[in-house]
Every structure is written in C-alpha cells, then in structure tokens.
Fold:
Amino acid sequence: MKKDIKNDFPIFKAQSDERPFVFLDSAAVSQMPQTVIDAVSEFYSTYKANVHSGIYGIGMRAVEAYEGARNAVAEFLSADSNEIIFTSGTTASLNMAARMLESRITAGDEIMVSTMEHHSNFIPWQELAKRTNAIFIMLPLEKDGTLSLNTVRAMAGPRTKIIAITHVSHATGAVNDVREICRMAHGVGALCVVDAAQSAPHMPIDVRDIDCDFLAFSGQKVLGPTGTGVLYGKEKHLCELTPVIFGGGMIRHVSAEDSTWADAPQKFEAGTPHAAGAIGLGAALSYIEGIGRKEIMAHERNLARMARRALMNMPGIHLYGPGNEKETSGIVSFTVEGAHPHDVAEILSRENIAVRAGHHCALPLMNHFGISGTIRASFYLYNTEEDVERLVAGVQKAGDMFQV
Structure:
C-alpha cells in the first residue's frame, strides 16, 4: 500500500486541523478519491444527458460511459454485463430481489437469514415471509457471533427456498463461507442471496466461483458516490423474473391491452438512472483495481489485528466478534465498561477521530451479545498504523474519563 494514499482523498486535508483527520467509519460510507470526484464532475460539466434516449453527441457519450461502468462492475465480480442491475444501494438491491422472488414463494416455504444480518438483509425477507405465509427462520450464531456451517447444514431442508446471508458482518467483521453456504442451499433446491456490502470493497469476489444466485453491494462503500448500488443476478433468473418497478426505458412494447419488457438488465432499470453515480462507481472500481483487492484486504486485516491486540490489553474494554485467530475483515467492535457507546464516540470525535456507535442496524446481533450497541472502527485502504495509534490513545482517554 503506497504511503501517500491519503493525498488522493481531498477530505483528509479538508477535515484536518492541528490534528490529522482519522476516518474509521468506512463500513458505513467510504471516502472518494479525486479521480472519482473528477469523473462525476466531468459528467455534470461536459456531457450530462439522459442515457438510452438521445442520439445527439453528449447523449451517446453518456451511454458509452454508463454502459462502460456496467462492464467495469461485471469485470469486478467476474460476471457478464447483462447480469448487472444498477440500483440506489444494497438496501434497494435486496428489496428488489425479495420482490422479484415473491412469485416463487408459497405458504409453508422457508426463508432463512442469519442473526448477524444488517436490517437491509433481514427485514425484506421477513416481510416477504409475511406476504406469502412462508416460514421466516433465523440461523443462530456461535457465542463469538460467527455462523457455523454445521448450523446451516442442519437447518436447511427440502422446504428451504431462500437463504440470504452476508458475506462479511458489518458489525463484527466475521467472514462467512458464502461459497459453501451457496452449495448447501443449492443442495436442498434453494436460492442463495449474498449481501456483499462489506466484502466487495475489500476482497476479490468471483460470483461464478461463489455460485450465488444474487449478490448486492453499494457504491458508497467502494469509494463511489452515495445513492449507487448493484444487484447481480444469474442470467437464467433475470430472464425468467418479472420486474417490480415499471415505467420508461424498460419496455419493448406498450399497448392498451398489454406491455412487454426489454431484455435484462434494462427491464429492471425503469426511469432515469443515476448516470453520474454509475460513472463514478466505475471510476471507483478502476481505482481499487489499480491498487489490488488482495493488497487492500491484507492491509486492513493488519490494522484491525493491531487495534484488537492493543484494545484487548486495556482494562474495561470488551471486544465483540471473532478474534485474530479466525478470518476477519477490517472491522473492530468494542465497548468501554461504564460508558455508553455514543459517549465514547463523542470523545473520539473531539480528537478528530470518526467512528460509528450504536446497534449498527443489527438489533438481532446486539441481542445475541446481550448489549445495546458497540463502538465500531472500520478500516480501509487509506487508514494507517498511526490511525490505529490515535484510536487506541483516544479510547484510553475515554476509559480514563469514565474511570475504567
């Protein structure tokens, strides 16, 4: 990882005072390098046009850039471009998948999620079960918040129709073996939907190797603009499924009697797309690939290990999730005894350190641990060992204030 990488991200200069800005909330939203900002700005400044509608010069350039971004996403996931649907984020992608799959679910079918899921990969499936009178099942976790493959193997059966699982926990950094879980799902005739919001930015993903039926991630977490996202679906599914959002741009024919749809992925992208966002997302993926996801993953895990080792030796600090002996991502969740997570986050903010505090949209997981929330530090490619040292010093200051 190059030492001056923060220079690519203007926010670090803009938000630094006498102390450098330490941003440790990339699990929620990543910062954008100047190259991505420039790509979005160039669209708005020089060739803003609605895609797939105008045959004039800037309209054709917009289409070329927009579809080029789709090709970049496809290459990023080792998918085909006609399997890539642009959305407004992971939440929209997973809701769309749940709606599209509704026709395949009947009363008594089982829909499974894990207890560690973000609400975005929990509530859409819970609501689908309610609408169809299916059985909603939560896969229980081990004491450390990890999911055992033996649990999935024991609970999946002939009535299971969908298993929706996160690749990496946004709250603890636990990594699930989604390839094996997809294999188990297919073994009982079920579909497997993967929430890759926390894995796509940080590690290589090959949807062919994983063999997932659907996969979702957000642009804002991969150095891209907010309001952008991706839903990958196997071509055979996208050809068969009916869209759930209707309007312009997704039709082949419209009459008083009936309407027919365009081919995938266009039939799932009704209305005016967020072209600037998609173009920015394509630029972000190019930036990431220029560094290498394996290098990014190794860098983040090293920082997370450093933070865990330092925090675990401090009195009154409780760590949550798998330890360094298990595969994890660059996420560290902890509490300070006697202090509310929000209070700790506020103290860190005064030190110009940004972390996330609360239940992280994962109330079932917090209930599993018997707590109301944690402080979460999430590392990314622009973080450094000095950032870890600043975090540890800030937590020590918070501990001293609360007399830990």
The CA atoms of residues 70 and 81 lie 6 Å apart.
